[in-house]
Amino acid sequence: MNPYRYFFSPVCVYAGFAFLTCSGAAAEIAIPKLSDDRLEIELMAAEPDIVTPIGLAIDSSGSLFVVESHTHEPNENYKGRDSDVVKRFTMRADGTLGPPTVFAEGFRHAMTLAFSPNGELYLVHRNGVIILHDDDKDGQCDRLTEVLRLETTASYPHNGLSGIAFGADGWLYLGTGENLGEDYTLLGSDGSRWKGSGGDGANVFRSRYDGSHVELVARGAWNLFGLEFDRSGNLFAADNDPDGRPPCRLLHIIAGGDYGYRYRLGRHGQHPFQAWEGELPGTLPMTSGTGEAPCSICRLDRAALPKGYQDAMVVTSWGEHQLELYRPMPRGASFASNSEIFVKGGQLFRPVGIATSPSGDIYVTDWVNASYPVHGQGRIWRIRAREGVETVAPLPAPTEWTPNSSQQKMNDLLGDGATEVKQKELLTALASDDPFLRSTAMHRAARPVFRDRVLMATQSEDPALRAGALLALRRSVEDWTGTAGRFLSPTIKVDEREVLVRALRDSSDDVRIIALAWIGEACLTELQSEMEAALTQVPPSPRVFRAYLGATELLADPAASRQGRPVAQTVYEDARGKVLEQFLLDPARPTSVRQLAAAMLSSSHRQRLAPQLIEISFSGDESLRLEAVRGLIDIPGESINDVLKKIANDKSQPERLRAEAVWGLGRRGAGESLRQLLGDPSPSVNLEVQRATSPVNERESESRPETLAQWQAATEMSGDVDTGRRVFFGSQANCSTCHRIQGRGAFVGPDLSQIARSSTREKLVESILEPSREIGPLYAQHLVQSADGRTVAGLWINRGPGQMQLITSKGETISIPEDQIEDHRISDQSLMPTRLEQSLTVADFRDLIAFLLSLK
User: Structure pTM?
Assistant: First the structure.
């Protein structure tokens, strides 16, 4: 009898989930809901038999091997083991799991498991890959063989080594995390190595099964947790997102692929030289966005399921409480897919690992609790077809590559030889509008044998070929061997210099941006004057201007940039401020660029340019004037109040401008002076006057919702984006005290510049009303009590020698000496304040949601 088989009572259905009581579990357990009624899901194990499970692998006999984590940020009072273990569950004849045994133990930050094609069990932990040998076949590990090692000072639990997959080509593929920006060396068993600059982000590597011949495959990810091959040999990866660059991604990984992220350019992902969806020339788009915290991928043709699943794969989404189904369809040389819900659970369903058994059943590990530190709960679920449902037999793992036509085209480009035909094929592909073909051609054309042809192509009449050739030339000087510690050298050859100088003045935005990115990331200070001259000679578009600012930032502190460290904020802002001032005050510059310059000014530069901003606010283009008024609002002084009052009271001024001035006066505490504008014929002006002069209860015109569902319903009506922006940056909501949008606000919480890419209206409403329901691991609130009686609450931003640094909800950075810390714990409450909605009317709240949904 299965001790975890559930029984149903007359009251066991609630909100779409059945409940079960299980003798081995601590409490009733909600059963996740399947989207296909031909399938069933069953609880197979729970605490105390399994706690905080992560990785999962199943051998040829059907035995389950599960990583049980005990070292993932345990609290001081944690009563579990002091090391991670691999537990083994055998399969009984009746289809139930036998009691677990410890197969291997003594690990730290163990991540995942996988069986190689020859049946050896590999364990990936944060800092290495180990083969677990059971020589006498007694169900216990007899010895360990280390095949790969990650040498680094970084110790964050899960941004080192993580995902693993075995290709039919005889290589082991390994996904990594961004390692919190620390340098590292990935060392192979034969001494081969990749020496990585910590600022480069996450990569995909490969080695032979024995850990020899370490090679870089692709780069530009954030945290690559799950890897999986499809039957044609295409490699897919589940990639988590930097907090300001959603959504998480399902990626198609190709040789030489660059997926756009660089840690040294800021962990928020908003730098102009970072890309998340192939926005930057030479970077690759995602196959699909995924739910939050994707952990593993499983190809469903390995399972015994009904027809309709054989070309699909499933991703476990820890943060969305669900398994997501993807059906990659050809898109040029790559794939695209939409997301479907396969399994949906409640708050206590946190799927992590996934694998199929020889019989075709699907098994899923479940972390259960939102607690980031280990917590003593855990589940293992089984998904399979219901009895009597016709299924398709599981397909065996492929033994050789069977590329489709699109992949074959990329493979042909990568082939050996430098014949005239091959060079023509490469040049054609360099100008392709298919980013995957272009990337492959760029990677191949970077070889020395093609250099002369590539140099010639940088002067082609075709702007697409000029861009592709410039990318190939840049790739030719990048280090993909792992010996130099970073990708770009700070020196260039004479012919490369000539190409870059010409590219800076190119008519193509893409060519100019590629050149600026090369100069900035390689810290080519010798070309800074050429870069500045080109901007004057050829007026930039907003895209080029942002790239120019990005290069300026990196050149402001070449020593830091060359070491892979972020440029100091003060140095960066000073360099950027000079550029912004130059463009803002030059009426000959494009209005769109002047507007962008005004929006990007720091508070100190706005204050210094107050007279010029006042002048701009009264004449010229309305959008530029609006940015000038927004800049004035942050400048202290009664004289600024007088300027804003003048604009607010002048009915001949544009409505948006007047409303912004009224809002600014309210934010500055001068709202009472605007009472004479109550009843103003302009709706926006009148609304902002009411906000500035009347409390919420006097302004409320609707019945206030009392529940989450009622607030969701209230926001189904459309709100006003401009008004919502003023709510976000206003004093009632105070959102910008912690969050940043398009350069304005603070960095306490996640950057929200593109929040609508990953959040729906429902999710946004929920996150505001119930901020502690889902707390990202990097935004957990730490509570520290010091010896002098203080209790400091904030985000842990740094633990330097002898001290701990927290940033509070007010943006204050507080350092506490370690010898003064009496108590330190992680709160289950978000740093984001509760009851935010009480400071807003229903209309305010609706407008705020509308503004956030506009940020894509």
Answer: 0.83
